[in-house]
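TICKET: design request
STATUS: open
ATTACHED STRUCTURE:
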């Protein structure tokens, strides 16, 4: 039996994690009432009494929670951006590179990846590692997410919050944001991809609840070594061979598609990667499909929890062990 405490369980990510852990007989939970959640002493007690704490908090509150932990046996998964590039923390993307899964399993401090970085890194990190994309390459990442990625405030904006007519949204059907080019995900994407130049990140949100597409366009002629659609696809397929949660779609299947919609993996912990491009041409569109609340947040946290507790990593995530 493992004892779990979700600090911030009333938020969007916390609620999703709790739902995914529901019915797990090998887990017990410490849960605080609304008043207790605001009591630092009670939170400290819970944080030090559990086997594993999952922090679903803003960055500053996550750092405060970590500072409250003095029990050396407690393991932590932080879902904020506070520790994603910090020393002493393991980046919680088990499929990122060889050895990463073992690093997560052996760590007491794991930082859950962001949703956009999960798609970007899934596409780009293997290509940098293989030498197809050099570390100094200037890359652009375009992405669209459902509004649930913005938490309760954005959900209320899109679904009709206080001051709006019942069920009426005041939000536009599509919004580009991060226009100042200093989005908090940029350092995370740049570092863990193995790049030396910041990516140009162009995020957006659509008027649908969850699901996301992350795209990276490549001009093959701008790469230092001549390559092709087939080589790029082959590198991704080799990197994720045998993975349970990451799928590289066959070139033929991608070529037959007339469009890509962001909601296709909702409710799963899957990450699906496409390579689109004319095999005789000079351009490629890499695209990742995932649920921003699944592999992009809560599903990834459950996968990391399983690894850190020595359990089958797909437990409770809709897959069977080999």
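STATUS: resolved
RESOLUTION: sequence designed for all positions
ATTACHED SEQUENCE:
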């Amino acid at each position: 039996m493992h004892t779990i405490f979700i600090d911030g369980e009333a938020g969007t990510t916390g609620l999703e994690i709790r739902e995914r852990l529901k019915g797990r007989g090998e887990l017990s939970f410490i849960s605080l009432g609304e008043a207790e959640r605001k009591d630092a002493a009670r939170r400290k007690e819970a944080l030090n009494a559990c086997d594993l704490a999952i922090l679903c908090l803003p960055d500053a509150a996550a750092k405060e929670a970590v500072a409250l932990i003095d029990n050396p046996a407690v393991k932590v998964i932080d879902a904020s951006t506070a520790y994603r590039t910090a020393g002493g923390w393991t980046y919680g993307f088990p499929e990122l590179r060889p050895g990463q899964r073992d690093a997560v399993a052996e760590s007491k401090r794991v930082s859950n990846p962001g949703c956009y970085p999960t798609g970007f890194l899934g596409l780009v990190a293997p290509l940098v590692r293989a030498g197809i994309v050099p570390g100094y390459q200037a890359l652009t990442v375009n992405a669209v997410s459902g509004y649930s990625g913005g938490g309760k405030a954005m959900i209320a904006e899109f679904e009709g919050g206080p001051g709006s007519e019942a069920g009426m949204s005041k939000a536009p059907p599509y919004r580009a944001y991060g226009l100042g080019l200093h989005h908090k995900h940029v350092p995370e994407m740049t570092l863990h991809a193995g790049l030396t130049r910041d990516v140009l990140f162009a995020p957006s949100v659509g008027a649908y609840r969850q699901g996301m597409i992350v795209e990276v366009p490549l001009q093959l002629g701008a790469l230092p070594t001549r390559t092709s659609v087939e080589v790029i696809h082959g590198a991704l397929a080799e990197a994720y061979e045998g993975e349970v949660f990451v799928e590289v779609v066959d070139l033929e299947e991608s070529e037959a598609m007339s469009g890509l919609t962001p909601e296709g993996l909702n409710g799963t912990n899957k990450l699906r990667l496409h390579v689109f491009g004319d095999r005789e041409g000079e351009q490629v569109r890499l695209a990742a499909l995932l649920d921003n609340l699944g592999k992009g947040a809560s599903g990834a946290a459950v996968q990391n929890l399983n690894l850190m507790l020595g359990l089958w990593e797909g437990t409770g995530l809709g897959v069977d062990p080999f």
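CLOSING REMARK: Residues 161 and 169 are 7 Å apart (CA to CA). Residues 115-291 form a domain with the Dihydrodipicolinate Reductase; domain 2 fold (CATH 3.30.360.10).
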